[in-house]
Amino acid sequence: MNKYIKGVFLTSFSTILFGFNPMFVFFLQTSNVNLLFTLYTRFIGSIIVYLIIIKANKIKLYFITDLITNLKLFFCSLFFVLTAFLLIYSYTLIASGLTTLLHFFYPIIITIMSIFAKRTKMNFPLFLSIILSLIGVVLVTNPLEISANLFGIATALLSAVTFAIYLFILNDQKIKAIENNIFVLYLSFFSLLIIIGFSLFDLKMYKCLLTINLNYISIIGGVFYIIASAFGVSLFSRGARIVGGPIASTIGAFEPLTAVFVGILFFKDKSPSYYLIGVFLIVISTIIIALFSPKRKSIKI
Predict the structure, then answer these.
(1) Does residue 160 contact residue 47 with C-beta atoms inside 8 Å?
(2) Domain containing 271: what range?
(3) Is the residue at 85 inside a domain?
(4) Number of independent structural domains in the chain
(5) Which of the four, 99, 129, 139, 244, has the lowest number of CB atoms within 10 Å?
(6) What is the DSSP secondary-structure string of 199-217?
(7) 143 Cβ partners below 8 Å, 6+ apart?
(8) Tally of CB atoms within 10 A around 206
(9) If you ran DSSP here, which 8-state letter would residue 120 be given?
(10) How far apart are CA 105 and CA 121, in angstroms?
(11) In angstroms, how far apart are the furthest CA atoms of the chain?
(12) What angle do CA 53, 78, 252 make, to 5 degrees?
């Protein structure tokens, strides 16, 4: 398989996994866990999963001693954690369809950042694919019929900014040089440390530990949330390293598409009459970027 096509496939599959996360989080939170505990579950689970993968595949586990690389890993993890935090929090403030739409503004942000950094050369197919995918997301999420909460909107938009910065750092040469499974392990480890730091200022976290009421639905949701998150991050980071941040962000259209399907199948959400048009535009935009690869330049950050 062509390396670029492989990158498109890996990124597409990972965003489909991410699209199921709202459902898994909903199941997990039926046991009365709060937002930080949900993130604890995600990152501790990811660490365990990738330690097993590294051991099973006999990958050499090594410590990264370079200070600059560790700093970049830390900031990459910081913006990754902020994205997860803001997304889950915004689900409690506004409808998931509107959250997904606003979060999907990150392709525009990452593309603008890459152009200013001279890391990506804009061409017409890339521009067209971004426009088509954004129109498609608008159609499938139908935001005009959703009542708005200004703070919720700001939270979802901020998640787009933090995710764009995460993708920008992910495309750094020092980060790319790290073996993918090792990278996800480090990302999960730094993310866990950051969540622990957040927890020190959240007294509700400790009250949550005393009131958790686990049930089979929450356990199943937690397990699948860990699996979808762990493998989704790995596949996305591997694919994004191949195709680059702007392309990966455009392929991310599959995430809101999956979220809409999940809403219809499991939560009985109503889809707009022009839903199929949105699906068509998202698929076409992905085909366009798979066939027309923009020339990319790498720079040091």
Answers:
(1) no
(2) 3-291
(3) yes
(4) 1
(5) 139
(6) HTT-HHHHHHHHH----HH
(7) 97, 98, 101
(8) 9
(9) B
(10) 19
(11) 56
(12) 70
- CA dihedral sign of residues 47, 53, 56, 59: negative
Q: Are 260 and 128 in contact (CB under 8 A)?
A: no
Q: How many CA atoms does the CB half-sphere of 237 hold within 13 Å?
A: 28
226 contacts 49 by C-beta, under 8 angstroms: yes
Instruction: Give the bridge partners for 120, in sequence order.
Output: 296
Q: Name the β-bridge partners of 137.
A: none
pLDDT at 76: 93
Predicted structure pTM score:
0.75
Q: Residue 224: inside a domain, yes or no?
A: yes
Give the count of beta carbons closer than 10 Å to the beta carbon of residue 214: 13
Tokens representing residue 12 in the block? 């597409």
Q: Is residue 90 part of a domain?
A: yes
Cα 191 to Cα 84: distance, rounded to the nearest angstrom: 10
In a domain, 298, yes or no: no
CA distances from 37 to 176, 189, 198, 207 (A): 30, 15, 11, 11
> Nearest to residue 192, comparing CAs of 180, 184, 203, 181?
184
Tokens 């109503």 correspond to 270
- HSE on the CB side for 255, CA within 13 Å? 28
Q: What is the pLDDT along the chain (301 residues), one digit of tens a residue?
A: 678 888 888 888 888 888 887 787 777 766 666 677 788 888 998 899 889 989 988 898 888 888 999 999 999 999 999 998 998 888 778 766 667 767 877 777 776 777 677 666 667 877 887 788 778 767 765 655 555 577 887 898 899 899 889 988 887 888 888 988 899 899 999 999 998 888 777 666 555 555 566 677 777 877 888 888 888 888 888 888 788 766 776 777 777 777 777 777 776 666 656 666 876 787 677 667 656 655 444 434 3
